[in-house]
Amino acid sequence: MAGNDARPEAADIVIIGAGVSGVGSACYLRDAFPGKKIVVLEGRGRIGGTWDLFRYPGVRSDSELHTYGYQFKPWSHEHAIADGHLIREYLEETAAEHGVDDLIRYHHQVVSADWSSAEGAWTLRVRVAVPGQKPKTVPLKTKWVYGATGYYRYDEGFTPGFEGREDFEGDILHPQFWPEDYDYADKKVVVIGSGATAVTMVPAMTTGPRAAEHVTMLQRTPTYIMTLPRIDKISQALYRILGLRRGYAATRFKNVWRDFFFVGYLLKFPNSGRKLMRNLTKKALPKGYAVDTHFNPPYKPWEQRLCMTPDGDFFKAISAGKASVATDTIERFTKSGVLLASGEEIPADVIVTATGLNMRMFGGIPQTVDGRKLDVGSCVTYRGMLLSGLPNWSFAFGYTKYSSWTLKVGLTAQYVIRLIRHLDAHGYTKAMPVAEPGMATEPLLDLNAGYVTRNADSMPKQGTRLPWRMLTSYQADKRLLNGPLYDENLKFSSASDQQAARAASSSKEQVR
Questions:
Q1: pTM, whole model, 2 decimals?
Q2: Given phi > 0 = left and psi -120 to 50 = alpha, else beta, which region is 284?
Q3: CB-CB contact of 315 with 242 (8 Å)
Q4: What pLDDT score does 504 carry?
Q5: Is the model more confident about 374 or about 404?
Q6: Residue 4 is assigned to a structural domain of this protein
């Protein structure tokens, strides 16, 4: 590769990723540090991350946008549950308004990261693959790395091995790689899976001029599905009375506490919550529908994420006879459909494997610290944004239970700003959490969904107590992160400290 011997460009902060986390973090950091050089590296060719990658029918948010949106940028569209293209347009507007679009370098993928305590800097090797130009790899030095890469692999989804796959004569598609303008009109579709993607695709594929003949959601295990209004009428009233900015702030306040109390209720009273969910589902479906067969999960509410259906569109598709649900295991694919363990065969022209994601931290970037390879799977989270043994590297990891993802992104950025200011004020070049040897740990996410359990070993861990434990609510994190900046677990040092330590170590070796 050309460029391997090039003199490294220098930056103060490098943000990896230009999705919802990267754009939001860049806005906070640019506003806080107008004099610092901030670079945003994006491997894809457009802004948006998830909202640019996924193009499957009906792709939308699974959270309402008044809390999924940024605190500093009101969500003005009437749809609280928004289609993917609207979210991407919102990110583009935000980036342009805050001058972040000028910081983004597209088709720039970080392929390795090496930390030097002596230099107090990371050296990133970046593969530049701009269309029409010869690919090259260039070095980039930075004092701080901000990982905004999400937690799943962009280059592959999860698809189990299905016997007879090669026998099926129709199309087999994964939502993560949905072909542009794919025509499923008047076709029989089987969507394998019962998560948010499947619940989104099923009603979307039954409506419009290209509607499928019939869509079957084939699930091994039922999921809790709850109706949420696509348009928040209370929010609309608050906007009219208070204006855009104050109405948005009031709506965020309302929704943050609504979600906190509702999820808390489901967790504290799971049997009551299960009964409530069953009754709501029963009311949304035709009389006599087999609710206990298809919508009675074997786990408690919020042991896995609830799926949302805007205005009940999923249930309406079933009630209209355009969609159905089958709960069974797959024996094999056949020439013309899917054979179930029960012996029933579901005919299909198209099979959609909405079977989940593969998780991966930091896009799988290999990292070394002073020449030693870092195993991310052995690291422990500190305050939900730093990792033990990983200096000057923060990451955005939003909420997966009580609150919208982006609420944590804002808190993380504000904490990192305080931390960098502390380093600058005291002449430090290194901040690194140090975990106690033999500390008790748990999986990073307290969800038992398949995509979580499959990849638990390769993901960082969390401790059993603060500051190593991941908090799951905005309210709790806000108290923690707005409190004291650091404790005895976060160690600071300067390049001169490192040089003195090496000199002392060298002297001991010579005495020996």
A1: 0.91
A2: alpha
A3: no
A4: 52
A5: 374
A6: no
Both tokens of residue 161? Answer: 């091995």
∠ CA 61-242-71 to the nearest 5 degrees?
40
> Do 359 and 152 touch, CB atoms closer than 8 A?
yes
| Residues 308-324 pLDDT 10s | 999 999 999 999 999 99
The CA dihedral of 212, 281, 474, 69, to the nearest 10 degrees, is 30
Q: For the chain, what percent of residues have pLDDT higher than 90?
A: 79
CA dist., res. 282 & res. 291, Å (int) = 6
Q: What is the pLDDT of residue 512?
A: 47
Find all residues with CB under 8 Å of 285, minimum gap 6, and list them. Answer: 291, 315, 318, 319
Amino acid found at 335? K
Same domain (yes/no): 346, 376: no
| Displacement of CA 188 from its chain's centroid (Å) | 31
Residue 341 in contact with residue 355, Cβ under 8 Å? no
Going by C-beta distance under 8 Å and a sequence separation of 6 or more, which residues neighbour residue 305? 62, 195, 196, 400, 401, 447, 449
Q: Please give the structure tokens belonging to residue 160.
A: 């189990």
pLDDT of residue 153: 76
- CA gyration radius, the chain: 25
Q: Are both 393 and 420 inside the same structural domain?
A: yes
- Whether 509 is covered by a domain: the verdict is no
Nearest residue to 150 (alpha-carbon basis) of 13, 50, 68: 50
The single residue listed with the structure tokens 């391997």 is: 4
Helices (H) and strands (E) in the chain, counts: 14, 27
As given in the structure block, the two tokens for residue 16 are: 């990896």
- Domain check: are 69 and 185 in the same one? no
d(CA 341, CA 219): 12
